[in-house]
Amino acid sequence: MLNVTEKRILAALRAIAHKRNKIGYGALSNLCNLGLNVNDVAQRLRLSGFLGNIIREEVAEGRPAVSVLVVREKDGMPGKGFFECMDELGLRVGTEDNVEMFVRVLKLTHDFYNTTLGVKLLETPKPVRVIVKAP
């Protein structure tokens, strides 16, 4: 289960995905009012931990790894923690390299958040529960 900070990050990432954009680590920290200095290793690792938890939660729910949108400013790629988490979950396809994985997951994420289901998630602040009563 995601904590409050991770839920705030996830909501921001979903909106970014819907716009088919990406965001830098520092910009995400600022956007979500995290107060993290991503130039500090310990604080960067804290943000990486949040993003890894989001990947695990989203993938467990059958959704794409929206953390793919968070990239380094120098090269426009996610950090190594993203790829380690994806490998940990067995989500690398065949022999694809990091660039190929990034391109695939980025497209999948952008496409998902522009479907009816993905847009519905943008509109729903809390998980939707369906209760089926027996006749």
Number of strands: 2
Instruction: Compute the number of structural domains.
Output: 1
Report on the biggest sheet: 2 strands, parallel
- N→C terminal distance: 32 Å
Main sheet strand line-up? 1-2
Low-pLDDT residue intervals, each spanning 5 or more residues: 126-131
Give the helix proportion (percent range): 40-55%
Percent of sequence in beta strands: under 5%
The rough form would be described as globular
Q: Could you tell me the mean pLDDT?
A: 89
Rg over CA atoms: 15 Å
Could you spell the SSE succession in H and E letters? HEHHEHHH
Structural class: mainly alpha
Count of helices?
6
SSE layout:
Blueprint: H1 4-18, E1 23-24, H2 25-31, H3 41-60, E2 70-71, H4 80-88, H5 98-112, H6 116-123
Parallel strand pairs: 1-2
Describe this structure in words.
With 135 residues, the chain is mostly helical. It has one domain. 55% of the residues lie in helices and 3% in strands. A two-stranded parallel ribbon has the order 1-2. Helix 1 (4-18) packs across helix 3 and helix 3 (41-60) packs parallel to helix 4. The N and C termini lie far apart (32 Å).
List keywords for this structure.
55% helix, two-stranded parallel ribbon, mainly alpha, 6 helices
Give a quick rundown of the structure.
The protein has 135 residues and is mostly helical.
